[in-house]
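Example 3.2
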Amino acid sequence: MSEITRRNVLALGVSALLPVRTGRPARVAAADRIPVLDQKWNIYLSEGPTDPRCLPAVGSLRAMMVFVDFADAPGDGSGTEGIADHLTGYGKAEKWFSDQSYGRLTFEIARIPGWRRMPKPSTSYTGTNKRFTFEQHRDYMSDAAALFPELDVRTHPLLLVVGAKTDAIAISPTFIATLARAPMTPTGPVRWGVTFGKDSYTNNHMNLCHEVCHTLGLPDLYNFEPLRLTTGSWDVMGDIFRSRSLIGWHRHKLGWLADERKAYLAHGEFGTVLTPLPGSTGTSMIVVPADDVLNPSKVYVLELAQPIRGHDGTTTGDGVLIYSVDARISTGHSPVSIVPAKTTTNFNYGELFEAPFSSGSILDVPALPFSVSTKAKRDDGYVVGLKVR
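Structure, written as tokens:
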């Protein structure tokens, strides 16, 4: 059991025709008035204002995928097309962005096939920990871009550099640079990129989706040190192995979730049917401030859980997911924290896989700025009643 105090009550006489109180709360801001969270100080990739160094998340994003090898790590002799298909999931990555953004972002990946040889051995680009510093990453991107004179960053601003499999480049990080610090090409600066290392050869296409989301401004939700998937598998920014989607807050932050599908409740009572995020109608996200109503740094979010996929291929995840978002906490230090119904963990589904609240659950904890009753499940979602203190 978690430290959360909860009561499970029997919902008596509930049917698909359960009346839902839809009167407006005492104070609820317009959906497009959900405040940008105040991060208080300069934080890289926070849950507050989107970093101005990031790419726009609405419109069209075109990427170019290139392939490089090394004298000490030659490329696979069978070519690069199969590797590209694996990294993109045979087109699943592009479709994922279309689905998650409700069509507001069109993501296209072009390819320049074939290996081109980097000027230095793979071991010269990283340190003993097989990771890049920013300067090493910039040098790597600069050397890779120079191999492709046909590259035009004006039309394809996102550069995806796939390295031949080598222990020297272990992981697949995102590259984001200011104009002053970006490598230059004849067509302009390379400010955004993803470099695919050895891990990408066994990871699926969610690896690419996760890293590209960094270039749009989303932080890592897992904890760097010690390494833990502290947000469970409820968002691809926290777990690329089991998650298949973004939480509502991230869809809101990127400008993808329509105004009429979210509500900001500062105090009062609110009853509604929470509808699934992948849908197109209804209220799918409720936001409650945890501190300053007009200028919060932290909020709580309620939405319907989206399925997560276990290692065995089965899925789980149903009910009302509740979590906090804190703009004062930086990437890699758990800026999103789940308020769990249960704290169950296993290898198949990961941490907090039974976090959602089911029908008949009441969450009423004095430390939280609200109480919520998950009244019933219907065909169109979950009936919830929310009271802000």
